[in-house]
């Protein structure tokens, strides 16, 4: 079985299980895009795009708990909308929702999102900022 990474261009592992989420910043108009883009969606230029990590922690805007999972995901599990200071809102799994509330600070961590006959799908999920070894980044 081989493991697959979800959008490998949009994240990289840091120390421990911490993850940087990567987007692009346009050097012409300043627009930030996540995941990375090849052309700025605002000014349509492509010659000044630089990779920039989302500033963490993010803030939980809303979350829910699913008790009926699709195949390959163990239920129950939590899913949250998380806001970042660059103006990006991401939807992602919560590693543990028991201590999360609206307004909680969370950081991205690596983990298995789904398993199946072909292996596991790896990507980022969100954990309370105090759970990560170095705390808020
Ligand atoms: Zn631009």
Topology:
Blueprint (H helix, E strand, L loop, with lengths): L3 E2 L5 E3 L5 E8 L5 E2 L15 E5 L4 E9 L10 E7 L5 E6 L10 E12 L2 E10 L9
Parallel strand pairs: 1-10
Antiparallel strand pairs: 2-3, 3-4, 3-5, 6-7, 6-9, 7-8, 9-10
The site of zinc ion (ZN) has 8 residues, from loops.
Description:
The chain is mostly beta strands. Helices cover 0% and strands 47% of the residues. It contains no helices and ten strands. The chain has strands at residues 4-5, 11-13, 19-26, 32-33, 49-53, 58-66, 77-83, 89-94, 105-116, 119-128. The strands form two sheets. A six-stranded mixed sheet has the order 1-10-9-6-7-8, with no helix packed on it. Strands 2, 3, 4 and 5 form a four-stranded antiparallel sheet that branches. A hairpin with a 5-residue loop joins strand 2 (11-13) and strand 3 (19-26). The chain is globular, with a radius of gyration of 16 Å. 26% of the residues are buried. The mean pLDDT is 92. Zinc ion (ZN) binds at residues 26, 28-29, 31, 40, 42-43, 45.
Keywords, please?
137 residues, mainly beta, four-stranded antiparallel β-sheet, 10 strands, 0% helix, 47% strand, binds zinc ion
